[in-house]
Design brief:
The strands form 2 sheets. Strands 5, 6, 7, 8 and 9 form a 5-stranded mixed sheet that branches. A hairpin with a 4-residue loop joins β3 and β4. Helices cover about 20% and strands about 30% of the residues. The chain has 2 domains: about 60 residues, 2,3-Dihydroxybiphenyl 1,2-Dioxygenase, domain 1; about 60 residues, 2,3-Dihydroxybiphenyl 1,2-Dioxygenase, domain 1 (Roll). Pfam families: Ble-like_N. Keywords: Lyase.
C-alpha cells in the first residue's frame, strides 16, 4: 500500500477555505467532512484536512500561529511552468496571496510560493530532472 499524507491545517472560515482549495484543483471527500472539518483531496495519496480552530484545539494545546508567520512550506510538483503559474493565479483570485516569496527560476526548476486565506504557505514547482546541472550547482 502506498503511504498517504494528511496535512492538517487550522482555518478560520471552513467554507472559504474549502472554496479556495477547490479552486486550486482539490476535491472534497464528504466522508470526512462536517461542520468542523473538511477533507480536500489532491491525489490518492495527498489530502488536506481543514479544521476549524475549535476542532484543531481538540488535537493540540499548542497555539495557532498568526497568519503572517511561517512554520512550514508545503511544496507540490506541477506538470509544467504553466501549471505553476495557474496555481498561483488561482490562489490570488480565490482569497489567497500569490508570490509571498520571489519566484525562483533556475532553468531546470521553476517555482512560485503562495499563501491560503489563513496564511499557510505552499509552493508550486516544476522541475526537469534531465536538465539538472551535473556539478550540483542549482543557481
Amino acid at each position: 500500500m502506498s503511504r498517504m499524507i494528511f496535512v492538517n491545517l487550522p482555518v478560520a472560515d471552513l467554507e472559504k477555505s474549502m472554496a479556495f482549495y477547490a479552486a486550486l484543483g482539490f476535491t472534497n471527500n464528504p466522508n470526512f467532512t462536517d461542520e468542523t472539518a473538511a477533507c480536500m483531496v489532491l491525489s490518492e495519496t495527498i489530502h488536506v484536512m481543514l479544521l476549524t480552530h475549535a476542532k484543531w484545539r481538540t488535537f493540540t494545546d499548542r497555539p495557532i500561529p498568526p497568519a503572517d508567520s511561517s512554520e512550514v512550506m508545503l511544496a507540490l510538483s506541477s506538470d509544467d511552468r504553466t501549471a505553476v503559474d495557474a496555481m498561483c493565479e488561482a490562489a490570488a483570485a480565490n482569497g489567497g496571496t500569490a508570490d509571498i516569496n520571489p519566484p525562483q527560476d533556475h532553468g531546470f526548476m521553476y517555482g512560485r510560493s503562495l499563501a491560503d486565506p489563513d496564511g499557510h504557505v505552499w509552493e508550486s514547482f516544476w522541475m526537469d530532472p534531465t536538465a539538472i546541472p551535473q556539478d550540483g550547482a542549482t543557481g
